[in-house]
Every structure is written in C-alpha cells, then in structure tokens.
Amino acid sequence: MDKFVVIDLETTGHSPAKDDKIIEIGIVVIENNQITDTKTTFFNPDQSIPPFISNLTGITDADVKNAPFFHEKADNIVHIFEDSYLIAHNVPFDLGFLNAELEKNGRSKLTNPVIDTVELSRILYPEAPSYKLGQLAEFLDIRHDDPHRALSDAYVTAKLFLKLLKKLHSLPYETVNGMLELENMLHSDLYELLYERQQALAFSNDEENIESFQGLAFRRIDVEKTEKESLDESFGTLLDDIYEENGVLSQHIPNYEKRSGQREMSEVIFDAFHGHSHALIEAETGTGKSLAYLIPAIYDAVKTKQRIVISTYTTQLQSQLIDHEIPLIEKLFPFSFRVAILKGKNHYISLEKFAHELFYPSENNYDIALTKAMLLVWLTETVTGDIEELNLPSSGFMFFKKISTEAEGMMDPQSPWFSKSYYQKARKKAMQADIIITNHALLCTDMFNDYSFIPNYKRAIIDEAHHFEDTAAHHYGLKLDYNHIQYLLNHIGHKEEGKMFGKLIARFSEFHDQLPIDNWDNILDELKFEVEELFRSLYEFVANKRSNSNSISDIGRLQCRLDELEQEEVWNFLEERVTRITFFIRDLIHILAMIEQVLELNEALDKFDKDDMNGMTVVLQDLIDGFEQLFLVEDVIPQVKWVEADTKGSRNAVYLYSEPTDVSTLLGSTFFEQKESVVLTSATLTMDKSFNFIQERLGISSERLFTKKIDSPFSYENQVQLMIPNDFPDIKFGKMDDYIYATCEAILSLADITDGRMLVLFTSYDMLKKSYNLLKETMDLDQYVLIGQGITSGSRARLKKNFQTFEKAILLGTSSFWEGVDIPGEDLSCLVIVRLPFQPPKHPVYEAKARHLEEQGKNAFMEYSLPNAVIKFKQGFGRLIRANNDRGIVFVCDARIKKTRYGRYFTSSIPAVPITYDSTVRIMEKAKQWF
C-alpha cells in the first residue's frame, strides 16, 4: 500500500464524548512519495465556537455559519481514505473525533492502518527538542505558515511524514531488524514499511560510518592519538592578537565591543597558574567569563603539556562551552588543541547491556518499546553515547539506568565490547585532551573516591563556583526515600514474579532443589512491611511535630532534624525497626551469595547472570549502608541528618537526608591542598565586596590565594531602577495575608506599566501558590498569561519558553528561578523580589550549620545566613540585565533592605543603581515616567 492520507482537524473542544464538534478538516494525499491532492472545508458544528478556540485558530461563528454539516460530506471523506494509511500528528485525537462523527451519522468507523507522526518523529529524531508540530517543523526546516489551521497543519504533517519516510529508508539492516521486533508494541502500523526496508537491504550495510556487532548497528567512532603541539608564542602577544581593537575576536563577533574586564580576567588566571596559586574571581554579568577563562586554560595546557579540568554546575553550561565557546576559540587560536567532555558513568549507554535487553528483555511495555526504538536510531548517529542528547519519555530514563555504563560494573578489558564502550572512549579522549570539561557532581565524586574517575590533573577552573560547597556536601551525604526503596525492592521481586530475582532463578530450574530460595518471598515481604512501617512512623511524627511550625521546604514539604527525634520516646522504636530492616536485607544478600556459590560449582553462571546478581547485591548493600549511616553508626565528620514529609503525598511519602555540616576541612585537605592551582569563578562570590565568606566555606588557605572582582561592562545606573516601597505590611506582626495582598496589587500595577514581561521571585512555594491564586482571581486573564512554577505544568525550560512566547506574561518562580534563567531584551522588563532570600531559620541544614558556627564562637547570622542571602539576592538581581540595551525595574517588596542595619549589605553588593524608597503610589508614578 503506497497511498498515505494525512488528516488534521480543528474542533470546538477536546472531547467528542462531551459533544464537541469538528469545525474544519484538512486532508493531504500522498502517492508515490509525492503530495498529489489537498482538500479542506469548514463544517457547521450547530453550536457556538468557544472564544478560546476562535483565538487559537482564527475560526469564528461567522466562518462556519453557511458551511455544510458533517453528514453532508461524510461519504466523500470515507472515500478518500479507501486503501490508504491514515496519518496524523497525534492519531488518537484526529481519528477518535472522525470516527465519533462517522458513528453519530450512521457510518462505519475507519479501520485503516495508522501512522502517528508524533510517535514516528520520536523514534526517528530522538534528539529533537520537542515533538509539537510547530517546533518539529522549525527543527527540520519545514515552513509552517498558518499554524492551528487544518489544511496548513495537515500539509506540514505530510511534509514531515515524507522526511520521516526518507530517514527510515536510510537506516541500516540491524536497526530495522530491531525495530521490527518492537513494532507490535508501538501505536503506528509500521510493519510493512520496515519489512520493505529490511528486504531492500538484504543483510548488506551500505554505510561506511556504521559498525555492526552482535545484532546492533552503531556509528563508528575512532579516537585517534594525536601528537601534542608545541607553542612558541607568548601569552601577552596572544591576548593582544585576540582582544585588542581589530583583533581576531572583533573579526568573528558581530558588533564586537572590547570589554577590559575580559582581558583582565584572562591575565589573572594565567598568573594564578604560574604562581601555583588558587584564585577567587567574581566576574559580574556581561564580562564574558567563559571565553576569559578558556583562553588562558587552553594556552597553558598546550604550553605546559599538562591537562586542565574545567568544571561547571549545569550540563547546560557544559554543552554551551562545547557547542559555542570552543568552536569560536578554534577560530581565534593560531594552534590546535584538544577538548574532551567527561561525565559520570550513568550518562553513557552500555552497548552490551542494551543488546542484552533488546534480545532478552527483562520487561516490556509501550514506553520501554518506544525508548528501545529511539535508542536503536540514536546509536546510528551519536558519537558520545550520552543520554543528555536524547528526549526520552519519562519512564525511558528508568530503563536507561538499567543499560547505562554504571549498571555494567567493572568491564573486562578483554571483552569485545570494551573497545566499543562510549564511556571508555570518553575516558580515552579525556586522557589525550588538553582540556577536560566536566561537572561539579563528577568532580566531587572523583574527589571523594581517591581521584579514580577523572584522569590525573593539577590545575582546575570551577565555574558557577557559588554551588561548589553545596555539591560537595550533597555528594558526601546521602538520600533515602520510601518510594525509591519500594521501587528497588519491587524491581528485585518475588520468586514467581518475573522480575529480576524471578527471571534469574527461572534460568536455572534444573538446580532449584539445590538453591536456598524457599524463604526468599517471606523475607522480602517482611522487609517491605518494616520499611513501610518505618516511613509511616516518621511521617506521623514529623506531621505532628511540625504542623504548627514554619519549617517547610520550598517545595512544600515538612522538615525535621533527626537529632530532634533522638530526644523522643519514638527513637528507640525507630532504631529497632532499622535494625530489623538491615537484618532482613542481609538475609537476602546471604541467599544471593549461596545461590552464586551453588551455580559456580555447577559452572552454570554466565557474565549477565553474574552482573544481575552483583547488581541486586550492590543495591541491597547500599540500602544497609544508608540506613546504618542515618540511624545506627557514629559519624566520622559532623553531619546534619533530617527528614522531609510530603504532606500532599501518601502517608509514607518521606525523604531522609544527611550532609556534612561543614565541608571546608574536607575540601581543604582533599582538594585545595592536593592541587597546584584552582581558579573559582562566578558572577556572585562576594558580600560587601569581600571574599571572606566563600573562602572560609570552601576551606581555602590564605597563603596561596588571591582574589579579584571584575566589574560588569553594563551601564547599570542608566539601565536599572531599584524600587522599594515603604508602606508594605510588616510580616513580623503576623500580617502574611496582608503582605501577599500588597504584593499582588503591586504586581498588577507594574504589569500595566511594563505590559507584563515580569519575573516574580519568591522564597517560599506556599507564598507563590497563594499569590498565584489571588492574582488569578483579580487580574484580567484575557490580557495577561499567568505562569506559576509548580502550578503550570512543565519543566523550568518549558515555563521560560512559554513566558517568552506570550507577549504579556507574568512568571512566578521560586528557588531554581533565582539563577541560570536567561531572558534577554524586552522579554523581561521588570523583576519583583518578594522577600529577601534568607533560608528559613527552621530549615534543618540551616539550624545544624548555625549551631556548628555558634559552638565555634561565631555569629551564625552574620557569617552564614546573611552572606548566603546576599549571594542569592545578587543571583536574582542578575536575571534582569543580560545585554547592553536591556532596561528594567527591580522592585523589592521587602523593606528590610532599607530598614535594617544589615540591609546595606544587599545594596552594597550589587552594582551601583538609582534607589527609590517611597510609597507604592509614588513609586508607580516614577516607574511610569521612567518607561
């Protein structure tokens, strides 16, 4: 069958069951890979079109008033679909509506084979950023002139399908073969198309860059050994050539403006390396710090033939360095250099594990089949094997964990898979690189595991360094939660369940009389019961203890330190429970060891069985270690341990955490004393122009440290107005609701002045939620789009994109929106900071760290709470001005910034800007004039 009919509908709503009707149909016919016909018509729905639909599609009641009714055209539509595939971008919607209308009008449902271009796009373009039709069209360079109109959408879907067909016809034999095995679990009827491609290939592989091994096809990657380059040019000459007027940088950057701070930063880093010193550099927004640190790092690594590690907090910045900054520097430098990106083992796919899951699946459902199909195609394209490249379905990430390099344990270098391993290739590339780009998480994992993950290095640059302390504490600590533990235990499963344990012993049925498995199910059930009771007890205790307290996390969880529980009667009961839990887990580990012994004696174990056994043992041992560290053993270094209960979850939605109260000694001895030179940089490292706080928190000795503050090139005094109302209610006197009401009134007034385009930063999720609900009641939702983090669905990146898409939008965000969100230009004209970002005084980590400082005779507020709040405030402030021509208002609702003695630390830590401290009414007048 080589006739494909693409359909798109516009409707009065989402549900034919609720009597929603079709108002427009667009049909495109494809034959012999050519678009041969198009048809479109309005339908009279015999009901009014909702305003939302009219706004979206542009179709009004007047357009459909004289249009035919559906039954008048039903037979023509059915005729078009004879002997064809039915194609749509989200088939269930279009086919569901069409068949509902056909049935209502006495016709038979269509039963054509279907192809859903959403599903097929996911499989064939697994790296696409989004699978919405408009964004896919942009990604694949397909023109889409009239979105949300039926014929235009159908036409674009047809063009998309032709691209998909072409891509499918380029796949190698093994990939197609693997997809044929999965086809019956997919929604689209792809068998004929795949079978046709398989037969055309007939076992041949016609692409040079594709390698095949044991049923998998993947892109050939050769890590070539290259000689290290010699370098004669002096660093000063190189900087002159790059940075000065008419230098190479000005030739490669449109509208280049020299920034003196950028060159200064490069020189400071070069001096640090050569003086074997550590450096703290605060480079304010607009300095261009990525380029400023890459230039001396690359020069010095090539010159000294010693690799340098660059660590970032986010993988987003890692990608930006590799995709944008490094290619630019390659054009700037008169010599070549090598850069490698290195991440943790959990980021890389294991080809051996994937092949095993493909041909001997441990579980299968739609999401896993879709994930496997996506991976099969991706392997023919990826040169990294890094999951970050993929846009997987949510449960696809759980499947990826099972087939990541981390899951394969120690790989035998003699294995034929070893030379094909993406992780080993990444390590080999890193060994040969001048610059290794990694992240704080892997850097800390490496540091706390005797430097066994990253190739040896003496010098490092740590970007986004204000996160380094928290990352180190997080990696030295641990986390246990009820849902994850139950997931792990269910995944291991009972004898007859067909999960990990059941599948393992099923392979050795002839030895069952020798295997000690009779008691497995009882022990597992006892263990699950004890875990459930432990977490339920913790939940009830925390809920009762904190119900009248303000110790609530920024995602709405109740919090309590574990040492508070130690003072209560419940503690002995909890310890007994934990002891029983560890005994039951040890019993399971003992059974696994005895099974392994029996099977070893019978020479019945293969590599995958051993991996499975080892995997189960490691998971169980990690649980013992976690429970013991939290409840039963003395700490080697002081720890803060706390419990969080999710009041919106089930009665055991509980999370347990531990972190060191102070990582400075740990970092000092394990990292800074071991390394020759470490440069730490960020836009926010100082408080009141002093680096003392960050230096002490990180444990850097003053002996070989120098510090530098590099000012922003932006003209803040002309670009920003800082406005603080003096008439807001004082929260201190229990006027929280009044404060929220005043905040919402100010947001609405500012929105009128700035046409929306406003980011509102909260320190508490509870306050955000209350403000969102109040704004929703009082504002004109036809005029403004209101987006609330944690309320409006979507990731941070998705919320930001929605905010930029709508002309008049207000975005309410909490913790993660205070930094790393880049909204340049007119998309953002007003930043509202609702409260100064102090950590809640009852937060378990704050309480423990404050107590630790007070025991040393220090002032916890001045030496911990205030500096952290100032640094976070600076991060928030930095959201507004991202370019030379940005302008805007920062409106701080919290008058403590002016009323208190410590308030000056906030204003003296940001660039000098005009400050207005006045009544809300007069501030609004001034804001209107300024814009």
From TrEMBL:
GO molecular-function terms, A-Z: 3'-5' exonuclease activity; 5'-3' DNA helicase activity; ATP binding; ATP hydrolysis activity; DNA binding; DNA-directed DNA polymerase activity
Domain Helicase ATP-binding: 248-538, 270-489
GO biological process: DNA replication
The entry's keywords: ATP-binding, Exonuclease, Helicase, Hydrolase, Nuclease, Nucleotide-binding
A Pfam short name: Helicase_C_2
Cross-referenced InterPro entries: ATP-dep_Helicase_C, DEAD/DEAH_box_helicase_dom, DinG, DinG/Rad3-like, DnaQ, Helic_SF1/SF2_ATP-bd_DinG/Rad3, Helicase_ATP-bd, P-loop_NTPase
UniProt xrefs under SMART domains: DEXDc, EXOIII, HELICc2
E.C. code: 3.1.-.-
Enzyme superclass (EC): hydrolase
Motif DEAH box positions after renumbering to this chain: 463-466
PANTHER family registered for this protein in UniProt: DNA REPAIR DEAD HELICASE RAD3/XP-D SUBFAMILY MEMBER, REGULATOR OF TELOMERE ELONGATION HELICASE 1
Positions that bind ATP: 283-290
Name of this chain's protein: 3'-5' exonuclease DinG
Cofactor(s) recorded in Swiss-Prot or TrEMBL: [4Fe-4S] cluster
Keyword set includes Hydrolase: yes
Function comment: 3'-5' exonuclease.
Catalysis performed (reactions): ATP + H2O = ADP + phosphate + H(+)
KW Manganese (keyword) present: no
Protein family according to the UniProt entry: Belongs to the helicase family. DinG subfamily. Type 2 sub-subfamily.
Domain of life: Bacteria
